[in-house]
């Protein structure tokens, strides 16, 4: 146990270890993630229902969703995809989580929404083409390393029509400035989130000020197994994300407050980018 605790307090290179598959394929954890996504009263996994409505509304105002082919990357249980389809967009939702996709498909069926959902990894699996718009909402981009982001930008460019729009949001350096390093230990840490079994949970929150990266490194100890979780987050300012997306071949049209669609003003909240493929 000493070895594991010692490793918990070491500072790995940013984005050097990934455990995303555990979060989305472990039945218990994936179920907890879906439950958090569907909790419309908190921002823990998805934004509050009224905020989602506001975001879809300004996206519609910016690009005109009706009749457009839209691919919602990392769609989760379809909270944004459903509202875009209600505005007459032809929506394809893609997500790594089978639990989330199953929920999204059932919701679309019950509400008679003609949404195509794919249980796939948008970093490696086949993507739809000839799309008018691609969306990536609630900081998904921030969980990726620079090399992963570059690969994703290439894949998005291939899926969009000439002049197509890429809408995404990122967490900001103002939010990073509010973070603090900490170490947490508890029995059944996070109220049983990590396992249906009894367990002890440790979390070491680590900051990388130069790179503007944070890591929440978890060690979960059950009676019969132990596992680690590495939750990475990259933070941006308008200049760094604009430079990065322009280097990937896009033109940045707007940098906006994600909740309102108004021009972004420096504050400890997320910003949205509306970028366009060259004609």
TrEMBL record:
Entries under SUPFAM superfamilies matching the protein: S-adenosyl-L-methionine-dependent methyltransferases
Protein origin, superkingdom: Bacteria
Transmembrane segments: none
Domain Methyltransferase per the UniProt entry, residue ranges: 70-164
Key words, A-Z: Methyltransferase, Transferase
GO biological process, one term: methylation
GO molecular function annotations of the record: methyltransferase activity
Protein name: SAM-dependent methyltransferase
The organism of origin for this protein: Desulfovibrio intestinalis
